[in-house]
Design brief:
heterodimer, A: alpha/beta, FAD/NAD(P)-binding domain, Enolase-like, domain 1, five-stranded antiparallel sheet, 15 helices, globular, B: two-stranded antiparallel ribbon, two-stranded antiparallel ribbon
Chain lengths: 505, 432
């Protein structure tokens, strides 16, 4: 049964006041600017705040809301909903913990969404328009368009600059499925505006957002069918991680259609249908709402990039070199508009590099970043560094040291023992090449691996680093102890760790 | 039946193996169609033929001859009929053909031999069939019917277009259907398909290039887990299927040379992982222990759920179960421990005897069932798969024989195709 949300307006008013005040007036330009940034998502905000801290004259232009996808339609709202879904699941398992006072919990979807909106508004405060202005940043809430290599317009204002960073992000691109436009669909831009829980939700695409929301909405009470083209979820992740996720989704009740393509959509007297094909076998899936989580395209249109001599591709985004410099030597790009790895932390890190390269020695390369990332399903799936297949393609002898969470004391006591820690090591050395973690809090555990790899710590040293006991992160130390138990013969001629230190502002 | 099983347990090791091997062998003749050689996938009513089971059966008939369970002339006739059927069967893109491009559909009608269930044209199952055809072609070295077997064996193997099955890629596709072409799902990681790459590399007519085997091994995962260094693959059968035909002792491909191991030793490591996992028994399933293990592909209780010890249990039907990542629903394959006999004889026999003592219902007519779950329906003696599966019985016959006499390995070591395939895939050393 659909439940109407309440208390939306206060949170939304607060949010708007912070990310796009209704009465906003653009400031008088202070030309020329040292740096103009187009786009106020994670990359744009990071670049603007770093440049302002360095005393540069900065203008930040945003055509929609401050915060970009991450705040408004990505990481923040999805994690708020995922948290609510996890609470509901843990309440359903209360009997295992000796708590029997509860009736089977029911979902108040309106309350879930209201909480999400409150959280979004609260997080927005940290990068609000008021705060940006207080840092000395000129904020223009307008469309931006280059008029020449060092000049652009923001609304009615003409701005000139010494350097610019394009950080306009990306947006969902609906697939070309006949009938889809007619039956309608949700994307990450619109699903967080729902006021009623979909009874039957069809999710097209088994990437990170599709998996996260499929599981969360199923836990909240929707009947969810997820359709994925590939034979497994999260095609870029380890097979074992993806298969554990499949099992977990099935356990939650998500109907999974792997290796299946949506070839059409229609509406008839029986409702809405997704028409699918798998290995030649056709199957119709009944839905009330459809969520698209495949296909994103960079926001490059309408920017006048040609006038600024900035080359781009409509699908791949703005062309940048390893220093994030575009074909205009004074224009850089960062974030989803130019990156294949579309993660908030990547966008922020690249933005820092772009500012450093634009105003200092041109020596910071994006390709040498060690990027941790995480898909926030339950269990979470996180990774950093090389995958085994990547190492093998590079003819690097690799060995993985695996600890199952079901063998970790704290995971057992918590009743959260699904998953594993795998640390990939260059065989014959103790050099850590990468790690994959599947665990309830893998997104937190992977950060320990990020520190370890950035500091150049090898397996021998890691085995000696004390961890609290009991702790889920002890799985990382246990993997290193397994390495010691394995007694490898260390070779003398191996190169030092190739991972760059984390850049500091 | 109970008395019969108590008698089983009292037998010496040799006598026990004789009983269980013969029981398994009898499936392959009892559930075969003698006119075309097709063998039922399972003992259940209306079961179609699985071409993989036919491959196992063709490899087991020589065992029956050597053990005195089947007259050589009878075995030769049955084998000849089988090969004749495949040689004369419909090969085309038609949806009800028997095969295409020298490959065969996974499941065939037992009488007509035509495709059923809209199943896939299967390179891996064709490889298992061809392994049996090559084994028969090497074993039957006489005149008359046996000469015809050799001719048919060579012709059938030569007609398999392995290069077509690459579909323009380095690796071999998992399948093809007339309705949609090549299947989307690709092989990833080590599994039972090694035999397909070895046979493909040994083809005199359409050989897979050396790069194909390299591409296949690119997704290998060399892991230290549960105290073992192992080329990881979860389901136990993946460490046994290729090995039933190929004697991997002492021969190494590039990967195993790098790891200073071989595929025989790797199976021993995998067995150790399975035993350790069962001893730790992280999910608290009934029965599991160092002498009760064997999580692999096989029949299961079906999609059922139950609440036990304050936790939700979820069960599955026929599927590939694995260790340690799962899926694991408490279902073991009663045949699996015994099938590891050539690799870890003591563990295989200890486990099988423990199983027969603890759960005698898993063995009927001297045949071990496909799946057993003592966690589910414990008051009823646990869930037990109905009847038997041909793959299990065929593998058991071959593995027991490899342990007892090494017959299958001895035959295939003489096969020019297998030797050429192994060399083409980069294997060196040992008996090569």
């Amino acid at each position: 049964m659909a439940i109407v949300a309440t208390g939306i307006s206060d949170s939304e008013d607060d949010l708007l006041h912070r990310v796009r005040p209704p009465d906003w007036r653009n400031p008088q330009p202070r030309n020329p600017y040292d740096l103009i940034i187009i786009g106020a998502g994670p990359a744009g905000l990071t670049a603007a705040e770093l440049a302002a801290r360095r005393g540069l004259r900065v203008a930040l232009i945003e055509r929609d809301r401050i915060g970009g996808n991450s705040l408004n339609s990505g990481s923040i709202p999805s994690k708020a909903i995922i948290r609510a879904a996890r609470v509901l699941v843990s309440l359903r398992d209360e009997e295992d913990f000796g708590a029997t006072a509860f009736d089977r919990p029911r979902t108040d979807f309106g309350a879930v969404m209201a909480r999400m909106r409150r959280i979004r508004s609260r997080v927005a405060e940290y990068h609000s328009v008021d705060r940006l202005c207080a840092r000395g940043i000129d904020v223009f809430l307008s469309d931006a368009r280059f008029e020449g290599p060092h000049v652009l317009t923001a609304g009615d204002s003409r701005l000139t600059f010494k350097k610019a960073i394009i950080a306009t992000g990306a947006r969902p691109e609906p697939p070309n499925v006949p009938g889809l436009e007619q039956i309608g669909y949700l994307t990450s831009d619109s699903i967080f505006q729902l006021n009623a829980l979909p009874k039957r939700l069809g999710v097209i695409g088994g990437g990170p957002l599709g998996c996260e929301l499929a599981q969360a909405f199923c836990r909240l009470g929707s009947q969810v069918t997820i359709v994925q083209n590939d034979p497994k979820f999260l095609p870029h992740e380890d097979r074992d991680a993806a298969e554990l996720l499949s099992l977990s989704m099935s356990r939650d009740g998500v109907i999974t259609r792997l290796n299946t393509t949506v070839v059409g959509a229609r509406r008839d007297d029986g409702g809405k249908w997704l028409e699918t094909v798998s290995d030649g076998v056709k199957l119709d899936v009944a839905v009330d709402d459809v969520l698209l989580s495949i296909g994103r395209v960079p926001n490059v249109e309408g920017l006048g990039l040609e006038a600024a001599d900035v080359q781009f591709d409509a699908n791949l985004g703005i062309h940048v070199d390893e220093f994030l410099q575009t074909t205009n030597v004074d224009v850089y790009a960062a974030g989803d508009v130019c990156q294949p790895d579309q993660f908030t932390n990547v966008a922020q890190s690249c933005a820092r590099l772009a500012v450093r390269n634009a105003f200092g020695a041109r020596e910071h390369r994006q390709g040498r970043l060690t990027i941790p990332w995480c898909t926030y399903c339950d269990p979470e799936i996180a990774h950093i560094g090389l995958h085994v297949r990547e190492a093998r393609r590079q003819s690097i002898p690799v060995k993985s040291f695996t600890v199952m969470m079901q063998d970790v004391d704290r995971a057992i006591t918590d009743g959260l023992d699904d998953g594993f820690v795998k640390i990939h090591v260059r065989e014959g050395t103790d050099q850590i090449l990468g790690a994959t973690i599947v665990a309830t809090r893998a997104g937190e555990l992977i950060n320990e691996m990020s520190v370890i790899m950035s500091a150049g710590i090898g397996m021998r040293r890691l085995a000696e680093i004390l961890h609290t006991y009991p702790a889920q992160s002890d799985a990382i130390r246990m993997a290193a102890v397994a390495y010691l138990d394995d007694e490898p013969v260390l070779l003398d001629d191996q190169p030092a760790l190739l991972v760059d230190p984390v850049p500091r502002d | 039946m109970r008395a019969e099983l108590q008698a089983l347990d009292e037998l010496t090791d040799d006598a026990l193996l004789e009983r269980l091997q013969r029981g398994a062998f009898s499936y392959l003749t009892e559930y075969a169609n003698p006119s075309n050689g097709l063998v039922c996938d399972t003992s259940r009513a209306a079961s179609p033929c699985s071409i993989a089971v036919v491959g196992f059966a063709l490899s087991c008939y020589p065992v029956g001859v050597e053990r005195g369970w089947l007259a050589r002339s009878h075995a030769a006739t049955l084998t000849r009929n089988t090969l004749r059927f495949f040689g004369q069967s419909a090969q085309s893109e038609a949806p009800d053909a028997t095969g295409y491009k020298g490959f065969y559909y996974h499941f065939l009608d037992m009488q007509s031999g035509r495709r059923v269930w809209q199943c896939e044209l299967s390179p891996i199952d064709t490889a298992l069939l061809m392994a049996g055809i090559l084994t028969a072609g090497r074993y039957f070295d006489g005149a008359g019917v046996e000469a015809e077997i050799r001719g048919l064996s060579d012709a059938l193997f030569a007609s398999v277009d392995w290069q077509w099955a690459q579909n323009g890629q380095d690796t071999v596709s998992q399948g093809w259907k007339p309705e949609c072409g090549f299947l989307n799902s690709g092989w990833e990681g080590y599994n039972e398909a090694t035999i397909a790459y070895v046979l493909g590399a040994g083809s005199p007519t359409h050989p897979l290039p050396g790069s194909s085997f390299c591409a296949w091994t690119l997704h290998y995962q060399w892991e230290n887990m549960l105290g073992q260094d192992v080329l990881y693959s979860g389901p136990l059968f993946t460490h046994l299927f290729s090995h039933a035909w190929i004697d991997y002792r002492g021969i190494q491909d590039a990967f195993m040379r790098e790891k200073r191991s071989d595929y025989f030793h790797n199976t021993q490591s995998a067995i150790a992982v399975h035993r350790e996992y069962a001893a730790r028994n992280p999910r608290g399933y009934a029965g599991y222990g160092r002498d009760l293990w064997g999580i692999t592909a096989g029949d299961g209780p079906g999609n059922r759920e139950m609440r036990q010890d304050s936790r939700d249990r979820r069960f599955f039907g026929y599927m590939s179960r694995g260790v340690p990542y799962g899926p694991d629903d408490g279902t073991i394959a009663p045949w699996a421990m015994l099938a590891t006999l050539p690799f870890e004889p003591e563990a295989a026999l200890r486990g099988t005897r423990h199983l027969l003592r603890s759960y005698p219902q898993v063995c009927a007519e001297d045949r071990l069932s496909s799946g057993f779950n003592p966690t589910l329906d414990p008051t009823q003696g646990g869930w037990l798969s109905e009847g038997w599966y041909g793959l299990d019985q065929g593998l058991l016959v071959m593995m027991i024989e490899n342990h007892r006499s090494g017959l299958i390995w001895e035959i295939t070591r003489q096969s020019p195709v297998i030797r050429a395939g192994l060399i083409g895939a980069g294997f060196t050393g040992g008996w090569l």
